[in-house]
Amino acid sequence: MSLESHLQSLKEKYSSKLILLEKTEKNRLKLQVTQENLLEVMQCLKYEMGFSSLESIAGLDWETYFEVVYHIDRWDGDPTLLQVHVRLDDRENPMVPSLTSIWASANWHERELWDLYGISVKDHPNLKRLLLPDEWDEFKHKHISELYPMRKEYKLPEKPYSFKPHPK
Amino acid sequence: MNFKLIPNFLITRPLAYVGRLLLKKPITIPDGDRRNKDTIYYPKTLAKRQETILDRDLTLSDVFKHTPHLTPNARGLIGLNALNCTGCQACYRICPNKCIEMVEVNPIPPHWVEKYKDKDKIRPLLHPQIFIGRCLYCGFCVESCKFDALYHTPGFDAATISKEDLHHDFRDLYKIYQLYFPQEYEKQWKEYERKYSKSPYHEVEAKEE
Amino acid sequence: MSEQMFIHLGPQHPVNHGLWTLKIKSEGERVVDSEIMIGYIFRMIEKIAESRPYDTFQPIADRLCYVSAMAWEASYILTIEKLLGIEVSRRAQYMRVILLEFQRIASHLTWLSAYAGDLGVLTMLVIPYREREYILDILEHVTGSRMMYNFFRLGGLRSDFPQGFIEDAKALTFYLDERIREYKAMLDDSKVFRLRSKDVGILGKEDALDLGATGPVLRASGVQADLRKIEPYLVYDEIDFKIPFQKAGDCYARFQIRMEEIMQSTHIIRQALAGMPSEGEIMIKAPRQLPKGDVYFRTEDPRGEAGFYIVGNENRNPYRVKIKSPAYSNLSIGSHLLRGAKIADIPPIIASLDLCMGEIDR
Amino acid sequence: MGYGIYDGLADFLLKLASLILSPLVVFFVNIIGFFQDLIPILHFVNPEDFLSYEIEFQDSLKSTLIDSLEMTTILLFLIVNTIMLIWFERKLVARMMNRRGPTFIDFNYGHLFGRTWKFGLLQNIAEFLKFFSKEDIVPEKADKFTFNVGYFVFIVVPPFVLGAILPLGGDTIIADPEVGFLLIFALFSLVPVGVLITGWSSNNKYSLIGGFRAAAQMISYEIPLIFSVGSIVIVTHSFSLVEIAQKQSLGSTPFGLPYMFLIPIGFIVFMVSLAAETERIPFDIPEAEAELVMGWRTELTGFRYMMAMATEYFILLIGAFVGVSLFWGGSNLPLISPEIIMNIPLLPNIIFVIKLWLFIFLFIWVRAALPRVRIDQLLDIGWKRLIPLAILNIIFVIFLFINYPGLFGVING
Fold it and tell me: Which of B69, D54, D118, D142 has an alpha carbon 20 to 30 Å from D320's alpha carbon atom?
């Protein structure tokens, strides 16, 4: 199944649901999907198209809305990398369906997404904090921006140390 | 040595491999000055010499006597040739960890005063002060310095007793530069002494001797 | 002894190379279930990358995985060059390939000493470091430092190779070939080593793809996935080399693959040394800003497929840098591999995944 | 010396007591003897049989006086040998890894050919003293009694008691009871019990698993050990090490070959099971550093740890003593008649010690080359490979013994 045939089969099957589908490079595909039919498209990708492994899930905070970027790729036959964008407009509690049922490797990536961005994941097997310590909530219970470090509101201190002039 | 000749019954080949190592001369801690100084690029690697094994058995007490001689382009402590530095703050902007702080030189040195003779106001001379504790030794400041004032020196002993000493003042940097580039230092300092008598960079030495 | 026992292989334990916790629920000798907890050296590097000019992030990209610093530097700089569309001179590309392959050999040698050390072969705990010392020495002469090189620049490298480097590099490759053949006598031919490695931590092909294995772990399960062949970057398409892959999927297959990869790397280095054009400028001036747009570029790191997803937004600081780390996905397989294994098998399985906590915790 | 097992045992116990407390015993025994002559009331028992016993007691008194000096020398040899064994192993394992091993703590043997000649001989003596200064921690919730006494009785005492029965060359031996190496193996089997008790009573999960594994391993490897040695007993009709060693000289076996060449399978089985018995790589699972930290020795610190480590090497040394006398022919060399060796005063002892250290070199050689075996593989090898091999070996030896009696130094069948 070469790259073009992927393109064609995706177009006719989901012409309505896809917002954007294009071929960016030699073996790269870009796909924009809405949050509702993400799960369905992913299932089709995995079982029909043979996109066998999910590489990484990246969260993106565009101040007014969130975006989640999935990288999925296949190795057998004609290896291609598919980049799927999902836009989440709801800023208070953004939510993404979990893909662990399709790709087991999504487990850790989704836990990290929830841990650093606060994008909750629906029916994820064990949604716990992965990288931050479990007591992180008590440290920063003041404001939501303090809770999820990768959001834009969470500012790093400008100069983390004080400069003492040389005693000479 | 080709181990295929030894019949492989359960564990005979590993024993042969280890036995051969037993007979080989053991490698010791490479001595400090194992590099002959004439070639620019000393091949410590095996390529040029069959064995890099030290002929003298180095014991622990010897290690403290020898300072390892690093390669000429080693990226160790940073030295500052204060006479070239014009305080353009290129290093201050480029530093990834914000370790560099520009410090004003209060008794303005004579070569700077002489530069602004005709103008009415003398621009304050700034020199970098590096907090070596946070420094990544990445070398961006040395590359970005257009007046080749900052140098990488193969120095590595930045350990100090108190945390304050980690802030290398421009005088410390000048001393490091002098330690590792003695010829250039002597040449420039002699010529500077001929023109002007004293400058703030050298007060420190006077006090210490 | 059927009642279950909880063993807590805490952060500091000889079996996990680096700081992470392995909680095991074991029944007698067999591991029933295990849970992996990471995040002990979590530095939020992705946030640091967002608050810092894009070209000064490189020394920190070095420190992602301290054993293969050059590989991470290369993937960061290549991603930025792809985003900015910078052309690199052929000589610089050849030089990059040589340095990357040396770094791959050094990383595999470190892995070998960790793996053999866990199995108890005392000699092979020490010998690979002797070879790695020679490689670090060559890299020290080229870049100035032994592990954190910071040698890549936009458009090429910081400085040219020193005089006399080419003969030494070639001689070192022949020396390494000889040593790797000797390792086979020490490890491949010893029955006890095969006894401890064969059929341990078996990973099927579907499981490997589903669980997201990369690099030698994936190739050990029968998938021919090597980015240097599939998405050739730099000058890998002009150099011919084979991708070693096995079907067994156990620790022994991973060992064989890594040894074969070292042999391939020395082969690549020799070809690159021969094919390197003699002139070509080394470095260009870094442009002021990152353009609007995003790029995902992946390179073949010694541990697997390392990728950077960088989003630019007309600013000197990148808007978002997502780091895809191979050891992170390899470690997530851990609990699957350990299910049903024996307690004495934990060290070989964990060591065969070649973990490096710097890039896992980021 | 063969006047009845009971008396032999009494003689051995007397000698053993004198061995451990030899200086005191010598002084104490003399005083009793002296008073007995002065004050007859001490003959509280019926004087006749006591008298006869007394005469025997008198001349055995003289032999204790001579033997006690010999005993202290042999005991000192054993202890010094154990310590130097640790140095020997560290130096050899280091050289097999292409590095130099301990060189720093030693006298300076001068500068020759531009080298400071130092061999690190005092390294293990320094460590020996270091362990004395280390704090001796008893884990808080540990079972105090068994941790203190159980550990000491079962791990440290048997090897030191064995010191009395070990031959050192031709006929220099403290007490040579007929039971010979049966007594050695009997006391060997006490060690796993001690290991189990220490592991269990130190209230630490790791040492518990280590203790169970050690017990499983040692028990399962004693069977092939005794089978392989049994095949020699069939041939030589005696348990005492000295006699077996003498039988492997020029007169009895063809070309004076030791039993290693005549019963090769027995030798291999003996070596493998001895490696497992003394927990050497590739069988040192109980303290497999990788997942069990230090196995059953995790909670031992300071003096305890030093005793445990010294005992481990002492057991290896005793294994080497038994191995050399049984399979390598004690102080006899092939093609050289034993009389020549015996006449030169110290030669048999020197040959024996050289053979001893060669025997230990084999273990160190294997230690540097092989990885550790898993516990279930270890038990597989023990039960499925070694025991059938050992039985096969016995059958083979019996077949040889019946058809070719001259082969094993037994003249008339």
Answer: D118
